[in-house]
Amino acid sequence: MGRWVAAVAAWPLLRLVGVRPAWPVAVVAVPLLVVIWLVVGALPLWAWWFGFLLALASGLIAYPVAVLIVGRLGRSGERAA
Which residues contact 28 (CB under 8 A, 6 or more apart)? Predict the structure, then answer.
């Protein structure tokens, strides 16, 4: 449940820090977060510290990557002048 708070709270927080448009970034970040969380869940027990750090940093990884993806998708329809 706590992990999904990051996904639900993403849109208002992204909007607050000035990311426009925030909805596409929040939507693209969710699958990235899920993949990171699955990797953390699949790590062996001896790697718990790395998994803990990865879980904490998942937003620092997923949201910038989502911004890059949305930016690339947004520019794909533009024509060169």
Answer: 66, 69, 70
Radius of gyration of the chain (CA): 15
The Cα 70–Cα 1 span in angstroms is 26
* Model pTM score: 0.75
**C-alpha of 5 from chain center:** 12
pLDDT tens digits along 3-56:
777 777 887 888 888 887 788 888 898 899 989 989 999 999 999 899 889 988
Distance CA 69, CA 28 (A): 8
All residues at 6 or more sequence positions from 58 whose CB lies less than 8 Å from its CB, including other chains? 6, 33, 36, 37, 40
Tokens representing 78 are: 């533009």
Q: CB of 70 within 8 A of CB of 28?
A: yes
Task: Give the 3-state secondary structure of residue 44.
Answer: coil
